[in-house]
TrEMBL record, chains B, D:
Pfam family membership, one: BPD_transp_2
Name of protein: Xylose transport system permease protein XylH
Chaperone found in the keyword field: no
Localisation per UniProt entry: Cell membrane
Alphabetical UniProt keywords: Cell inner membrane, Cell membrane, Membrane, Sugar transport, Transmembrane, Transmembrane helix, Transport
Lineage: Bacteria, Pseudomonadati, Pseudomonadota, Alphaproteobacteria, Hyphomicrobiales
Membrane association type: Multi-pass membrane protein
InterPro entries: ABC_transp_permease (IPR001851)
Principal location: membrane
Residue stretches in coiled coil: none
PANTHER family named in the record: ABC TRANSPORTER PERMEASE PROTEIN YPHD-RELATED-RELATED, XYLOSE TRANSPORT SYSTEM PERMEASE PROTEIN XYLH
Membrane-spanning segments: 35-56, 62-82, 89-107, 113-134, 141-163, 183-206, 235-257, 269-286, 291-311, 317-336
Function field: Part of the binding-protein-dependent transport system for D-xylose. Probably responsible for the translocation of the substrate across the membrane.
From TrEMBL, chains C, E:
Domain ABC transporter: 6-247
Entry-linked SUPFAM superfamilies: P-loop containing nucleoside triphosphate hydrolases
Pfam families per UniProt: ABC_tran
Lineage: Bacteria, Pseudomonadati, Pseudomonadota, Alphaproteobacteria, Hyphomicrobiales
Signal peptide, first to last residue: none
Record protein name field: ABC transporter ATP-binding protein
Gene Ontology MF annotations: ATP binding
Protein source organism: Mesorhizobium escarrei
InterPro entries reported in the protein's UniProt record: AAA+_ATPase, ABC_carbohydrate_import_ATPase, ABC_transporter-like_ATP-bd, P-loop_NTPase
Alphabetized CDD domains for the sequence: ABC_Carb_Monos_I
Length: 302, 348, 274, 348, 274
């Protein structure tokens, strides 16, 4: 008698807007797992101050609990690869999702990769700006040390460069993180000091709201357009009302849902998905498709 | 400890009854040091920040940030003067944001209901903190750390259950927005006026009402304060409730200002408010401080934090410059006080 | 004045397993100075802390004006007119003289609808009260207490208690840090308070001070009431021995004298040591 | 303040010379409280965390975390006992990581050079902190805040200039890795042994060498300590250098352990180390504390933080449970001490 | 013993604009007790802080054994055998008796290559030293200082100074918080130290204590040396007046007496007040 699959999902902080959606996806898939006698456990760090190391600890925690399958993002490969290899060495099926790409999955011996890619997400944003003739952009980075966020900014700058534009990264000091007013005012100052900037890109939900506010206060709402990654109701409302141009969607819900479903099928029935690298993004949400997205956000799935 | 010695010397020197003493009286006020620190960093950015920094927009940049930190820093400062710390504000702010957004945004109840519920939540957390600190004799840092985690956890858990997400949008009616979440002139947050109001009230409490005396005595020596007939338990509980209320207020106003609430904002307020208070000359060990000092300290911190974006400096070096400037401001403060006190025009 | 203001009967006090006071019964009358004497650690401060609401007795009753009463808090005791200068603390180094004088009972004045701490009045009264102790150097109520010398601080605390003591004035070693002049002032204050009909409880280690002002003497030895007598009932020598915890001080003095004489032979009369 | 009264009572009670006193002597040790708090949270997770929590793997989860916090918490605790605070460790850790990764990873110099440079950096920052605290009489919270920002800014700026990125990979040779960045048995970090070593050294310093006496005296009363002939300036500087060194060590070992360094790692250490130290019974105001207490406090904090992953509880409620448990552990600690002290088998 | 151990010549001390000591010249000889007298705030503590390396004089020189010297730090002074009990502080409430006794000069023993703080030895010596003061209740060197009564703490500090004072022993109001018995012990200790050839500087506000042990008296009034005389050169009344800052104490005493007699007519002899 199979008692079901014990699946561990490594992810972001539980109160992270993006990760709470991934978590929702994993939990929704988990309903099936539970119906079959298994369980889905979410392991996330308390904060992102020590991301690679903390995540590696979480992977080891999952191993020590005799997981039947593990899903995890390869945020900081140098820090986490060793732990992932230990997963594979222990004979536990592994899926890499959200960060790392197929490269990581292959390198680590994981079954598959599900997700988007920070660099590609940023790149898509850069191209979107470029296509809309916004050739001078700034990437607001509220956590300037984190590799994935830096990759996003780098992608953005590469994307805009492809269209002949240019951009800079604006790293904010740590005392501003989590303080929307400080972020808004910093962006405002940057815009006032650099009147040529016409595009702003933010790396998280909260920052997008703050940035919209900063642009408004600089009196540049007509000229400076805002883009970013991820979304919530407010961002979609902003897109609808025109105060935000677009957002890059990597469909976190699918990342969690697919990873858990695939592993559950694999553990219980030996199923495998032959498609290597399941991409859930980057997709672009802008005024043209915002209404369709709204419904999903309301359900907590987007 | 050092600064205490400093202050005592100040008092002694200031009291010599001669011509010099009128300057002494002014100079021994701790506010003067904080004021000079503030002027110094302002001057720095006025020079390196160029024209934009001294415009209305530039002023709004740091004033908006200062106002939000300031509303929290005032009651945190009072607590510190009374010898206690409150770090639970870091999760009361998002909890209050989420409360008002959930009630008035997600469930569409009248905005008043949401605001009152949020403020009530702040008071409740403060009350619990106060009672725990009094009853258990556990250091308030630990008690409020416990409530910091507990409130953060509750906020997240309840938000997911009720709204299914970690961020909720809220569209306040124009009146509520005008009162709590408006940009005056398109750039100055109304919180600036609330801050002013709070500073006046707290200033009244600390410096002009009898309760100020109780707070100072409490921080100076808790046992002696109790022996002198001060209802120490009540004062401590009320002070914690005050900081809960103010933190909740900031949460509410942020929700209305940004039309949305998130589970995870607010942690930076813990650090920033404590720092502002200490820059303003309040003793970390309690018993000494002034509201004007706290206000100057907050402004200093906000200017340093935001002014950097008006300079042409590479943003990668921002933190370095902030660190050096903060130290310089506080040093300026101390040095000036010492200099002024040991200088005497003619030895009598 | 037959009825005592305060009366302790069979009061005990323990801190956890340590018994500090055993079965104390004692009466304090108006217009009388009670000198509480005893060696270091005898329990004098603990006893007066019970009378000023700082500690609650473990058992036993306290009567005020013949009625049983519980001093639940220092505030309650001071509301009933019991004013205390404790041995340690009571001064707030970082507060101004005026503020620290009025801690807990601040004078206020109306300013529109607000009641404002009356700094000027507080400073004036405080400075006046301290100057009456002969400490004329203090003329600015805004000075911080931390800047005062030990004697000045002590005088400030006593002045405060005298100012607020409506019925009972309790002084725990008030003269310890004081100069000759200031100590004499304190004694004068005590006598003045007695004259005004207050009951005064006075703790001291100096026999002479006790003899100067005391009407009624109670001696604690290791937490028990070893003697309770009125002025004139015992000799100075007897009192000294009691203060030293019941040990005869004669041999000690002989010893000191022998050092003195061995060295120079000019020791002062032994009795003066007491 | 309260806890100080507590302790004094403890001492008095413990000294009654009767049968009871031998228990008293044991119970009045502040470590006992911390120990019981630790046992309580361990028991909680042993029950709710299931079998996995008590396996070697489960133990490694909290031991690894505790070891890294612990290496920093020890010198931070010493500083707190001496009456000072050091928050600059939050940026010394990533600065040291980046130093060793840049030198030995990016520029491929021998690993020894990188390690020594990183440790030297920590000593230097500590030295600067110490000198500034002594010379300026600015509260150490502010001084080290300044250096926190300054070092963070320097790290970011220099990293971008030298390596062009904020993260650098490093592949250490097997020997260096075995010493500094290995998993023993595939799960226990070598830092656990370093932590043990550090605890022994710091324990020796605080409790068995004369310097411990100096540190306790310094925190008890700085002026009296100086009057008693203690070279206070030197002691303070050395303590800051110690915390800089330990922070740098953690940074180096993290870089080797995880084969990479990031500019932003480390801020959480500030908070976590201070909390661990206070849970361990060290007075926030200085003058009292023990190394065993700090170690127990660190373990308690680590167990609470990591144990939650072994329970089936929804991660949304994790913070709530952590908050409640932390409070419970500290309460347990205090209550037990009080209970033990006022209990006496038979009133003599 | 003609040569003084310590000699001050024209020493001035100001704190910023406040002049606390003016032009003090004074000699301290071995085998002699110098009583430093003066009103509250006269500058006594400041003077001995200069001698113990806490403060540096603003101007003037200090000679030790005839050689000019600068006491750059308290440590340096104590290394030269000058041991001081300061008026305030000096006790670390949260430290054990043994540890606080040996603060700064901890005894160590070898344990392999390590030198270990010798807790047992420290506790033993400390307890013994305190018990010699008659405080026999203290038998455990691990007790925290915060748990001692005021008198016990004071005795601990004095015992410490006596133990480490090789050449000069400075006591700033050592008897202030002490009981009769303990104060007598302190006086005995002072005489004992003198006998051993130490120079002792003794500050007190109690005339009797001064007369009992003093060989040499120096009186400070408002920071200036108002009198410098040897035993027997002045009467007790003159000394009392000097200690009160030069004011005649007679009227004060008369006043007190009049209260006394008005009330009961049984005041003790006025001279005893001193
Ligand atoms: N809170 C307390 N907890 C435990 N023991 C205490 C407490 N307060 C006082 N004691 C003990 O009670 C005894 C009496 O102390 P108390 O302060 O009353 O003495 P005292 O007579 O005032 O002495 P002194 O003349 O030195 O001031 C002492 O042994 C003291 O250690
Ligand atoms: N660090 C200081 N800064 C400024 N003034 C000081 C300082 N130390 C002492 N004083 C002042 O110097 C004067 C003398 O003080 P000192 O403590 O020497 O007096 P004292 O003779 O010991 O008095 P007491 O008998 O009350 O102890 C006082 O007026 C005091 O206020
Ligand atoms: Mg007493
Ligand atoms: Mg003195």
């Amino acid at each position: 008698e199979s008692k079901g699959a014990k699946i561990f999902v490594i992810g972001g902080k539980a109160d992270d807007p993006f990760w709470s959606i991934v978590k929702r996806g994993a939990e929704d898939a988990g309903k099936v797992v539970e119906a079959q006698g298994g369980s889905v456990t979410w392991l996330g760090p308390q904060n992102y101050d020590n991301l690679g190391a903390d995540a590696a600890d979480l992977i080891r925690t999952a191993i020590s609990q005799h997981a039947d399958a593990i899903v995890g993002p390869d945020w900081v490969p140098e820090s986490m690869d060793e732990a992932f290899k230990a997963v594979v060495a222990a004979g536990i099926p592994l899926i890499i999702y959200n960060a790392g790409g197929l490269d990581a999955a292959d390198r680590l011996g994981a079954m598959n990769y599900i997700g988007s890619d920070d660099y590609k997400a940023g790149f898509a944003g850069g191209e979107y700006f470029g296509n809309h003739d916004l050739k001078n952009v700034v990437c607001v980075n509220t956590l300037p040390g984190a590799a994935n966020l830096r990759a996003q900014c780098a992608g953005l700058l590469a994307g805009i460069a492809k269209h002949g534009g240019k951009g800079v990264e604006l790293p904010l000091p740590m005392s501003s993180f989590g303080n929307p007013t400080a972020v808004a005012q910093a962006l405002k100052a940057h815009l006032l000091q650099n009147p040529d900037v016409v595009g702003v890109y933010t790396i998280g939900n909260v920052d997008a709201n703050s940035a919209a506010n900063g642009i408004m206060q600089a009196g540049l709402s007509d000229k400076v357009k805002l883009g970013g990654v991820n979304m919530d109701q407010t961002i979609l409302a902003n897109i609808k009302s025109g105060s935000q141009l677009f957002t890059i969607d990597q469909q976190g819900y699918l990342q969690g849902y697919l990873a858990v479903s695939i592993l559950n099928g694999h553990v219980n029935y030996g199923l495998t998905v032959p498609t290597r690298e399941i991409l859930t993004g980057p997709g672009v949400v802008d005024a043209s498709n915002v209404d369709a997205t709204m419904a999903g956000v309301q359900a907590g799935a987007r | 400890m050092n600064s205490m010695v400093e202050i005592q010397t100040a008092a002694k020197a200031g009291s010599t009854p001669n011509l010099w003493s009128s300057i002494g009286i002014l100079m021994r006020r701790p506010e003067v040091g904080s004021f000079l620190g503030m002027v110094a960093v302002f001057a720095f950015f006025a020079i390196f920040g160029g024209a934009n920094f001294v415009t209305a927009g530039g002023t709004a940049s740091w004033l908006n940030v200062a106002s939000e930190i300031g509303i929290v820093a005032l009651p945190v400062g009072l607590l510190m003067i009374a010898g206690e710390l409150d770090i639970s504000i870091g999760s009361v702010i998002p909890a209050a944001s989420m409360t008002v957004a959930t009630i008035s945004g997600y469930y569409d109840l009248p905005i008043m209901v949401g605001v009152l519920a949020a403020l009530g939540l702040g008071l409740l957390v403060g009350f619990i903190n106060g009672v725990l600190v009094i009853r258990t004799a556990v250091p308030s840092l630990i008690v409020t750390l416990g409530s910091l985690f507990a409130v953060a956890g509750l906020t997240l858990g309840v938000a997911i259950i009720l709204t299914g997400s970690t961020g909720v949008a809220i569209r306040a009616d124009p009146l509520a927005k005008a009162i709590l979440g408006q940009f005056v002139g398109g750039m100055f947050q109304v919180t600036i006026f609330w801050w002013l109001g709070a500073a006046i009230i707290v200033g009244y409490l600390l410096h002009f009402s009898r309760y100020g005396n109780w707070i100072l005595a409490l921080g100076g020596d808790k046992v002696s304060a109790r022996n002198a007939g001060i209802p120490t338990d009540r004062v401590i509980t009320l002070l914690f409730m005050g900081s809960g209320l103010c933190a909740a207020f900031v949460g509410v106003s942020q929700a209305l200002l940004y039309n949305s609430a998130q589970v995870s904002t607010g942690q930076s307020f813990i650090f920033n408010s404590i720092i502002s208070v200490v820059i303003g000359g309040v003793l970390l060990t309690g018993g000494f401080g002034s509201v004007v000092g706290i206000v100057f300290g907050t402004i200093t911190f906000a200017i340093v934090n935001q002014g950097i974006f008006y300079t042409g400096f590479d943003a990668n070096w921002a933190s370095l410059i902030i660190g050096v400037l903060l130290l310089a401001a506080v040093l300026m403060n101390n040095t000036f006080r010492k200099m002024a006190l040991t200088y005497t025009p003619k030895k009598k | 004045m037959a009825e005592p203001i305060l009366q302790l009967s069979n009061v005990n006090k323990s801190f956890g397993p340590i018994d500090v006071l055993h079965d104390i019964s004692l009466a304090v009358k108006a217009g009388e100075v009670l000198c509480l004497l005893g060696d270091n650690g005898a329990g004098k401060s603990t006893l007066i802390k019970i009378l000023s609401g700082v500690h609650q007795p473990t058992s036993g009753t306290i009567l005020m004006d013949g009625e049983p009463i519980q001093f639940a808090s220092p505030r309650y005791a001071s509301d009933l007119g019991i004013s205390t200068v404790h041995q340690f603390g009571g001064a707030f180094p970082l507060m101004s003289i005026g503020r620290s004088f009025f801690v807990g009972v601040e004078p206020t004045r109306k300013w529109g609808p607000f009641s404002i701490y009356d700094r000027r009045k507080a400073n004036e009264i405080a400075v006046k009260a301290v100057q009456e102790f002969g400490i004329t150097r203090i003329d600015d109520g805004d000075r911080l207490v931390g800047g005062l010398s030990g004697g000045e601080r002590q005088s400030l605390a006593i002045a405060r208690a005298v100012h607020f003591g409506a019925r009972v004035l309790i002084l725990d070693e008030p003269t310890a840090a004081l100069g000759v002049k200031e100590a004499a002032h304190v004694l004068r204050i005590v006598l003045e308070a007695r004259k005004r009909g207050l009951a005064v409880i006075f703790i001291t280690h100096q026999v002479i001070h006790a003899l100067t002002v005391g009407d009624h003497f109670a001696v604690l030895i290791r937490g028990a009431l070893a003697a309770d007598f009125r002025k004139g009932e015992k000799t100075r020598e007897e009192i000294t021995d009691l203060m030293a915890g019941g040990e005869a001080m004669a041999e000690l003095e002989a010893e000191i004298e022998s050092y003195q004489s061995a060295h120079e032979g000019r020791a002062p009369p032994v009795a003066d040591l007491r």
